Amino acid sequence: MNKNPMNYIVIIVIIIIAVIAYFSFKKEDTDKKLTREQQIEQQVEDLLNEVDTSDKALEKLVKKADALAEEKNYKDAIKIYKKVIKLKPEAAAIYAKMGLIYFNQEEFDKSIKMYKKSLELSPDNNCSIYNLGTVYARINNNEEAIKYYNKSLQLTPGAANALSSRGLAYMALEQYDKAEQD
User: Fold this and answer.
1) If we measure between CA atoms, which residue out of 107, 131, 109 comes closest to residue 119?
2) pLDDT by residue (tens digit) across 150-182?
3) How far apart are CA 74 and CA 101, in angstroms?
4) d(CA 100, CA 102)
């Protein structure tokens, strides 16, 4: 090979270009390998960017969170529900959904807090009333559970789930005569 200095410069430039190209492609590959959590975060951010707080846009976020909750990906579902609440703090149903997730995670204090907030916004939401009774029953606060089951039965007299749950709470309190009536 000719010992012309220009040949060495050309070789060095080619090497530099190859190194730059290598690291550019490597960065693109890294960007493509986002973790599932990062992908979810990106999807939420994308949805939030198009959110004008219209019901349709918020509905997309809620559906995404519902799907995550269904997959038992509670952490990410809660993140999205919290973002929806920031945009629409009067969304009682979202608090109820969070209450159910916290119940499933056995975070009963948080579950109670969410159901109470849901009821603060929508006092006659029978599902939240009944579920709050169920949370209290789960933590063996049967007196409080019965109180909520009674409220549920006021809204829906004869509801089998509320009657049987109240009956179990009475049994736990050894009030067998009342339990037998349910």
Assistant:
1) 131
2) 999 999 999 999 999 999 999 999 998 998 888
3) 6
4) 5
Q: Assess contact for 155 and 129: CB atoms under 8 A.
A: yes
Two structure tokens written together for 70? 């269904």
Tell me the Cα Rg of the chain. 28
What are the two backbone dihedrals, phi and then psi, of residue 49, each rounded to the nearest 5 degrees?
-65, -30
User: Using CA atoms, how far apart are residues 65 and 95, in angstroms rounded to an integer?
Assistant: 13
What one-letter code names the amino acid at 86? K
Query: Angle at Cα 148 formed by Cα 146 and Cα 149, nearest 5°?
Result: 60
Half-sphere exposure of residue 150, counting CA atoms within 13 Å on the CB side?
Answer: 9
Residues 9-63: tens digit of each pLDDT:
767 767 777 767 666 665 445 455 567 777 777 777 666 665 455 677 788 899 9
